[in-house]
Amino acid sequence: MSRSIASLGLAITLAFFASGARLNSQESAAGSSPRQLLAALKASNAELLQKQEKTLQKLDELKKQAEQLRILTKRS
């Protein structure tokens, strides 16, 4: 059963690439100048950095909560 699913996935992938379909990243890069590409990369990097900062803040909050739980479990 899993072999037939893997075969189907391979067939779909091959059909996609054989059709000459372009990926989104290829489409946006096709008619852009190097400056436009650089600006797009900077924008996506800035967005990624913001997401990482939010994730770090959430992890810090979770760490503090875990430390509080450890303290409370030691008391009881």
Summarize the structure.
This protein has one domain. 87% of the residues lie in helices and 0% in strands.
Word description of this protein:
The chain is mainly alpha-helical and 76 residues long. It is 87% helix and 0% strand. It is built from three helices and no strands. It has helices at 2-18, 24-30, 34-75. The mean pLDDT is 80.
Please give the structural blueprint.
Elements: H1 2-18, H2 24-30, H3 34-75
User: What is the end-to-end distance?
Assistant: 52 Å
Secondary structure tally: strands = 0
Q: Sum up the overall morphology in one term.
A: flat
Helix content: over 70%
Supply the number of structural domains.
1
Point out poorly predicted stretches. Answer: none
Number of helices: 3
Notable traits:
76 residues, mainly alpha
